[in-house]
Amino acid sequence: MKIRLVKGGVFPILENKEGEVDSQMLQTGFDVSGTIQGEGKLSGIPSLFIRLAGCNLRCSWKAFDGSLDFCDTPYSSHKLEDFDELDVEEIIAIVKRNLHGIRHIILSGGEPTLQNLGVTKLAQELKKLRLHITMETNGILFFPQLARYIDLFSISPKLRSSEPDKEKISKMDFPIEEVLVDQHKSIRKNLESIQKYINYCHTKDDYYGDHPKAELKRRSDKDFQLKFVISKANEDEEIKQEYLDQLGNWTPEDILLMPLGSSRNFLEKTSHMVAAMAVKNRWQYCPRIHIDLFDNTQYV
Ligand code: SF4
Questions:
Q1: Listed residue (69, 32, 71, 40) closest to 53, CA to CA
Q2: Please, what CATH class does the domain formed by 2-294 belong to?
Q3: Which of 120, 130, 157, 231 is the most exposed place for a label (fewest CB within 10 A)?
Q4: How many whole angstroms separate alpha carbon 104 and alpha carbon 139?
Q5: pLDDT in tens, 164-204
Q6: pTM above the 0.85 mark?
Q7: What residues does each domain of the chain span?
Q8: Is pLDDT above 50 for 33?
Q9: Ligand 1 pocket: which of 6, 80, 138 to mutate (most atoms within 8 A of CB)
């Protein structure tokens, strides 16, 4: 079964097929991005990334100071020009060669759930290697068969500020088809799907069983986080009204606010405001460690 990845979509790479470090490939000391998980509950953990190609959204933001920022991986979404199609077995072989003690895999994109069948098979094979799997998703689609193999659902629901509009599009250096602009607006929020992810991380209380009074309790083998990108003040109100008031079974520790910005310069403009917003609501501030360390160096 073939899976579509961005070019060089498994990283960091240390060894080629012959077991040698290929000079054309990236040598991963601790000096390039893609070495650690940079965001969320598991930030700082050495990880191997698998970046899927293609996304059903076209995020673009206007920050509070009027500056624009777009999806930080446009080569997996807006600007998908080049990609690799690999068999699950080929991806697993690359992973095995390049683990070198890494125990954490990040399935990212783009949007991994768009390739549900292939990604399910891939996740199943990765689990056979006893690896911890995080899946980064915009939360629009939920597939229980895939969820079965995922340990941490890193869900990033999109706020109104992510919607592309004429002004943003006119300043992009790559075109977005109008149909995808409309699609972004109509599908970006799917509460039902997000609730399914959350519920998948819970099980019924043993004492009450199927009784209607039964409360859900948290499973020890599944976790989730709702990671919101914040571009301007007062977006916490939208998070509460449009999402949290309508979702159940979350705790404040599951709610992460991440400042908009794919460069240190940009992050400086938003991070203090976002940290204050997180503290005010007793949610978590989510730094972007990879940007602190590597700025906006693109690997894949
Ligand atoms: S959902 Fe994520 S990958 Fe897709 S366009 Fe938005 S930021 Fe980019």
A1: 71
A2: alpha beta
A3: 130
A4: 21
A5: 988 888 887 777 778 888 899 999 999 999 999 999 999 87
A6: yes
A7: 2-294
A8: no
A9: 138
